[in-house]
Each structure stands twice: as structure tokens, then as C-alpha cells.
Amino acid sequence: MGRVGVLLLNLGGPDKLEDVRPFLYNLFSDPEIIRLPFSWLQKPLAWMISSLRTQKSQENYQQIGGGSPLRRITEEQARALEATLKQRGHETQVYVGMRYWNPFTEEAIAQLKRDQLEKLVILPLYPQFSISTSGSSFRLLEKLWNEDEQLQKLDYTVIPSWYDRPGYLNAMADLIARELDRLPNPDDAHIFFSAHGVPRSYVEEAGDPYQEEIEKCTEGIMQTLNRSNQYTLAYQSRVGPVEWLQPYTEDAIENLAEEGVGTLVVVPISFVSEHIETLQEIDMEYREIAQEAGIEHFHRVPALNTHPMFIEDLADLVEEATKAPSLSFDGVMHPPKKTKFYPQERWEWGLTASAETWNGRLAMLGFLALMAELITGYGPLHFVGLL
Ligand SMILES: C=CC1=C(C)c2cc3[nH]c(cc4nc(cc5[nH]c(cc1n2)c(C)c5CCC(=O)O)C(CCC(=O)O)=C4C)c(C)c3C=C
Ligand SMILES: [Fe+2]
């Protein structure tokens, strides 16, 4: 391999409590996270939601030590991948580009430009593709590439998702097997896959392949695990008033308790690092729900972090991507057509004149309602827990 760089993409998280508000502002400013009919609404709404959500979010980060471990773990993964590639004889520079917090993707790109690479492998640290995660990072890269001729000359490969790789499935199965084997009766445990949710409309209207990839991933892990345990897939971390993918984790836990399940082994599957949604949401909130519902034993499988099988698999993936034909930029940051579906079209609202009119009216009404809610502290967004 020549001078190859690997760009690891991730979401980012606040390092300390003061970072929570600007981190949330960046997150809610992203149209791939909150989709609005008019772009001019995005920033005021992001400001408003982030201002009102900060306290609740800070309390959660406080419970896990005052900040997200995501940056530290992602840096550890980057260094472990670099070391594994070096052992295999490849001098590869691995960069970390976060979407909403330090180290930002823009900084990673500035650094890799200075390093004069021959080829770049773009590797999201999300096993499954979603418009809201890898898709959002690809959109940002698209923008940066479109603005920069030096980047346009760089050969690159994009890996859209990798949930079905045997190395990854083996690493996940290994972690689950270890957790099961610590129990007195491993066969009786119910394996509970908790995936990060997305609004249902992402899948049904915008063609997000996320749900399909999550389902295939879960089946792949169970086949690799090759045990007789019963299992369930549910979706966690719902934000806001709209419907998200179902069943919701909290409901599924309560249903299993009603069916008499006494031991749950929870497996987080949408991310590869410990972060607030494993350490606080699963370990604290869902544990409490399970206990209150009568589930006596609640165990959680750790995230992959720097699991050696996982890092070896990432190294294989980089080697394979380096051998794959390079792409030249044509205005869109897409992978080769054959690999995986990646929605190229932005999800547009208001496709017809009358819909435009209604979108406009609804947007204005919504904005006024939000202003009223901001001033009074009462309203539907407080009621459903978004603010
Ligand atoms: C509001 C919509 C959100 C969508 C859609 C969403 C999708 C999504 N997110 C992850 C992974 C992570 N999310 C994290 C934080 C986070 N995400 C949202 C909202 C949406 N996520 C919020 C409001 C937050 C902030 C935390 C909070 O206030 O609850 C993180 C970082 C966690 C950390 O340790 O800091 C990750 C990682 C996935 C995989 C996903 C869709 C597939
Ligand atoms: Fe999220």
C-alpha cells in the first residue's frame, strides 16, 4: 500500500458538562437529524431545543462521570487499528472525524490534506448505515469535497456499512458468549438486542436501509453465536414526538417481564463504543424499568471498544478497501454502485405547490407554538420529553 489514510467517522460527544449545550446545538442543527420544511428554521429550532434539553442531558452525562467517553475510546480504536496495520507492514495514518464535537471532521480533513495522502479509506464507525449517522457524515464530506480541488484529486473508497462481516459478527458473538457463560443457567437467558432507534419515516419515506441492516445484523450475530437462547430486537433512545422504529426497548422489556422472563442479557448493536446510551440509558434507566417490571437478572454485554477480533476485522476491511478500485469524486460522496444502497436524493419536502403552501403554514404555526412553549415552559414538546 502507498501513503494510505483511514478516516474513522463517528458522532462525537461532549467531553465535559459545559460542552453539552454546544454539542446539542450542533446535533440539532443537522437536517439529517431534524428534518424541517425550511432551512431557515433549522438554527433557531436547534438553539431552542438545545437550550431546553441541556439540563436534562447534563444530568445524564453527570451520572456517567461528567462527559462522554466516546472521544477517548474512538482514539484508542484509531491507534489500535494503526498498530495492527503496522504489524501487517502498512504505514497507515488513521484520523478521527467526529460529526458534532471534537475532533471535528473538518479538522481531520485539514490534517490529512497536509499529509499528502495517495489514497483515503472512509470508514464510519457505525456497523449499519443510517441517513442520520453515516449518511450525515457523507453529506458533510460531499460539501467539503465540492469546495476543495485538492480533495477532489484524492483517490478514495467509501465503506457505507459492514454489519455483515464475519469478523465483526464473531467479535459480537464472542462478547455475548462470555456474558452468557458467566450465568448459572446460560440457556435460560433471553438475549435482548437494543438498537438505536430512528424515526419510522426515515425508513418508510426516505428509504433508509437502517432497519433492514439492523435485522440482518441481529440474525447474523445469532447464527454466529449458535446457541438456543430466545432473542428479541427492540429500539432505544427515542427523541421527540414522532413515531420511531418499534418495538421500543422499554415496552419490549415490560412485555418480556409479563411473559415471565427472569434473566435478560442486553446487547447494544448500533455502535461500537461505550457511550451515554449504553452507560446511562441501558445500564441505569432500562435496568430500573426491568427491575420494576420483575426481571430479576439484568446483564449487559460490553461494547466492542478495542476488542482484538474487531480491530483485526477493521484492518482486513481497510486492506480490502485499499485493493478495491478507487473512486474519483463526481460531486457526490457515494460508494461504488454495487456495494450498498445509499440514498442519493436529499429528502425534499413540499414537492407540490399546495404542499409547499401547507408546509409553510404549518411551519409558521409550529414556530409560534414553540415560541409560546419556550416562554411559558408548558406545551407538547415538554409533555413528550423532547424539551
Ligand atoms: C433527534 C434525533 C436523533 C437521531 C435520529 C439519532 C440517531 C442516532 N444516534 C446514534 C448514536 C449516538 N447518538 C448520540 C447522542 C445523541 N443522539 C441524539 C438524537 C438522535 N440520534 C441526541 C439528542 C443525543 C445527545 C444525548 C442526549 O441528550 O440524549 C451519541 C453520542 C453519545 C455520547 O456518548 O455522547 C451516539 C453515539 C445512532 C447510532 C443513531 C441512528 C442509527
Ligand atoms: Fe443519537
From TrEMBL:
Any GO molecular function: lyase activity
Catalyzed reactions per annotation: heme b + 2 H(+) = protoporphyrin IX + Fe(2+); Fe-coproporphyrin III + 2 H(+) = coproporphyrin III + Fe(2+)
EC class of the enzyme, as a word: lyase
Entry annotated with the keyword RNA-binding: no
Known EC number: 4.98.1.1
Pfam families: Ferrochelatase
Residues reported in the UniProt entry to bind Fe(2+): H196, E277
Pathway: Porphyrin-containing compound metabolism; protoheme biosynthesis; protoheme from protoporphyrin-IX: step 1/1
Record's keyword terms, sorted: Cytoplasm, Heme biosynthesis, Iron, Lyase, Metal-binding, Porphyrin biosynthesis
Keyword Metal-binding: yes
Annotated PANTHER family: FERROCHELATASE (PTHR11108), FERROCHELATASE, MITOCHONDRIAL (PTHR11108:SF1)
Biological role stated in the UniProt entry: Catalyzes the ferrous insertion into protoporphyrin IX.
Xref: NCBIfam families: hemH
Family statement: Belongs to the ferrochelatase family.
Protein name stated in the entry: Ferrochelatase
Recorded name of the encoding gene: hemH
